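Human: I would love a firmer grasp of how sequence relates to backbone shape in proteins. Could you go through the record with me and say what the backbone is doing? Here is the record:
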Amino acid sequence: MPGREPITYFNRHTGGIETEAVYGEAFLRLAYESAPGRLLLHAFIKRAFFSQWYGRRMDSPASRAKIAPFIEKFRVDTGEFACAAEDFGSFNEFFARKLRPDARPVDARPDAVVFPADGRHLVIPDVSVCDHFFIKGQRFDIASLLGHDTTLVSKFSHAAVLISRLCPTDYHRFHFPCGGVADAPRLLNGPLFSVSPIALRVRPTILWENKRFLTRLRTRDLGEVLLMEIGATNVGSVTHTSNPGVDVAKGQEKGFFRFGGSSFITIFEPGRVRFADDLLEHSAQAREVYAKMGDHVATRLK
């Protein structure tokens, strides 16, 4: 099965191909790669009450005991934290941590668009011709992703798409990839499947099935940019911290995910941006690129 293949990605910061250590791998393989697991998946795991229950556990003071082992096992850089690891009151506080202001420098070049989050990233230069999304022959369904909003579907039918997949080990605050004026996020409800590569290789449709939030960002130079937070199994909640209807700056915080890996999708009008060469090269091979929030993702076309 495709899910049994090792999960590899290109690390922009080291320049090498690396193998991902998947948090909760045994559980994910059971749920998505076995018949008994799929029964549990549809009966319990994908449902909101399961993630809400797990989220409450991660909010409890007792969950603090998980922080130090997690930091050690996944080699989380505590030097980036805005506060000491001992100061977190729960695992969710640690998970949604803030970083020092200088930990994520934002590419300040006027024509530079930046990654909205830390994670492993995949790009689709023209979504209308993408027919190998994780599985050969699987088209990326932009209409379903946008909730079949006919106006948006028409406008973004040839969109350039950036998919940013956040692992549980990543910094989990998300930011604006460019400046503009953002509308209030709109909820598109759905189940809560995992967005791990194990799950996506079995069921790529998860991204446009799951519960998600859609924000329309009106910019001066890039037209309208769509921003989407995708919920997932064990994501306690998506919290938006920015105010709608006011100017936001490139790199400004938009919100954060609580416990669990998730995804952030950025959608550009056709002909507005050119993605960075490493993203184009590796995405053409269905391989993600690891990069951090604030790094260069695309250049605005003149």
Summary: The chain has a mean pLDDT of 86. Residues 23-95 form one domain. The first strand starts at residue 8 and ends at 11. The chain has two domains: 23-95, 112-300.
